[in-house]
Design brief:
The protein has 423 residues and is an alpha/beta fold. The protein is built from 18 helices and 11 strands. Bound molecules: pyridoxal-5'-phosphate (PLP). Pyridoxal-5'-phosphate (PLP) binds next to helix 7, helix 12 and helix 16.
Length: 423
């Protein structure tokens, strides 16, 4: 590991917790025929479940869990960006208020469908609203779901599993927020806490699930179901762009800025967008300087064979959704030829972006989600004036009011430190 730090300029900076911008030399070298997940199949499954979702979550009017794509013209004036700027508000996704409402809910729905069909209680042509009947809850209570999580994945998996009737356990790292643990417990979810980091929570969750054949472990690092659920975002967003009359082509390329933890959410989203827009979409991952696992894995070429701890980084960050020390091997391999690049951002800046967005647009997103903003600094000289930029706001709506206010106040006091506000 010492040699890697000495020989690779980017890795050297990463090891010093400096902000970096890594450009992928192999972007678009992927095999265009390669299918990692079947996004059509995932979208069809989500449509089958729409009547169920509508019944158990009446606030989701059409039963389709989707978020607005909002042009943010006011805050744009304060940012280094020449094209049009949008916010994809996964922060306001129904049910769990984060990007995890895509992959996490999808995986649990697929599990419920698989079990019910296998046991002869459901066929694909049925009206899935019946899955909310008491006898189905009773039936599903014989099965278990487990997950290890920094917070938001646990929220998604916990809420949807408990709604279906599964017995669900969420293994959480110590850095997970207290309100998330409280909320889950209030919904009947078993929450187990670990003093160590995220990896330890995941390892324990996996171990317990492995010894129980009725227990399904949601594997954040290796799950193709999560990846498939996230990938649907590409076509859904294309439909939103179409509706606004926005065409993406070589003259009007799309730039996406995606906060990255273990990589599943931004990776699946990138996969979905690349399969639609090909070389006309440019995807960048955002990570904290103290937990830059994907940037490290890609820049070193070692993928999940290296963790931030290996180069002496503590992995501690205010961006709890991104506090991951080792990237998903599945995702980092897929991204090595699909991603345009990665950048890291100091924690201090996140709150400034948070307050700026709130003041200019009246929209609150959580600190992790704010990491995306920093990408604009890096593409300012690269992207043409005709580009369309989308900041992927990965979470925020479930944060309790008093915490929102504390985050905002912190941002107000350090907004002057931000590189963007000085441009
Ligand atoms: C989970 C999460 C991410 C990143 O998703 P990964 O699949 O871990 O890469 C980003 N932002 C927020 C708010 C999250 O909860």
């Amino acid at each position: 590991m010492k040699a890697i730090i000495r020989e690779n300029e980017t890795v050297k900076k990463i090891a010093d917790c400096e902000e970096v911008f890594w450009i992928n030399p192999n972007v678009n070298a992927y095999d265009k025929g390669e299918v990692i997940v079947d996004t059509d199949d995932a979208e069809a499954r989500l449509k089958r479940f729409a009547p169920f979702i509508k019944r158990v979550f009446p606030e989701v009017a059409d039963g389709i869990i989707e978020a607005p794509l909002t042009e943010i013209s006011s805050v744009r004036k304060q940012l280094p960006v020449k094209g049009r700027l949008f916010l994809k508000q996964d922060s306001h996704l129904p049910i769990s208020g984060s990007v995890k409402a895509r992959g996490g809910i999808y995986e649990v729905l697929k599990l419920a469908e698989t079990i019910a069909v296998r046991e002869g209680r459901l066929s694909l042509e049925d009206d899935y609203a019946k899955l909310a009947d008491p006898e189905f809850r009773e039936f599903f209570s014989g099965y278990k779901v487990a997950v290890g999580s920094t917070g938001n994945l646990g929220l998604s998996i916990g809420i949807i599993s408990a709604t279906i009737g599964f017995e669900v356990t969420v293994h959480m790292s110590a850095d997970a927020r207290q309100w998330k643990k409280d909320m889950l417990r209030s919904k009947g979810v078993k929450v187990v806490e670990y003093p160590d980091d995220y990896e330890a929570a995941v390892a324990q969750g996996r171990k317990e699930a492995d010894s129980d054949s009725l227990c399904h472990f949601v594997d954040d690092e290796n799950s193709l179901d999560l990846f498939a659920g996230y990938s649907v975002a590409g076509r859904r967003t294309k439909a939103q762009l179409d509706e606004m009359g926005i065409v993406i082509d070589a003259e009007h390329p799309l730039y996406l800025y995606l906060p990255c933890g273990v990589g599943g959410a931004p990776g699946g989203i990138t996969y979905g967008f690349k399969s639609i827009f090909g070389e006309n979409v440019h995807c960048y991952f955002a990570e904290p300087t103290h937990a830059p696992c994907m940037t490290l894995g890609l820049a070193s070429g070692l993928h999940n064979k290296i963790s931030v701890g290996d180069i002496g980084i503590d992995g501690k960050t205010e961006a709890d959704g991104l506090a991951v020390g080792r990237p998903s091997g599945l995702v980092s391999a897929a991204m090595s030829t699909r991603l345009d690049g990665c950048f890291t951002v100091d924690d201090d800046k996140l709150y400034g972006y948070l307050a700026q967005l709130k003041d200019a647009e009246g929209i609150f997103i959580e600190p992790s989600a704010c990491a995306a903003f920093e990408g604009l600094v890096h593409t300012y000289e690269i992207a043409p004036e005709s580009a369309i930029h989308i900041l992927w706001a990965t979470g925020g709506n479930m944060v309790p009011e008093e915490e929102k206010e504390a985050y905002y106040n912190r941002g107000k006091s350090n907004v002057a430190n931000n590189s963007i506000s000085s441009i």
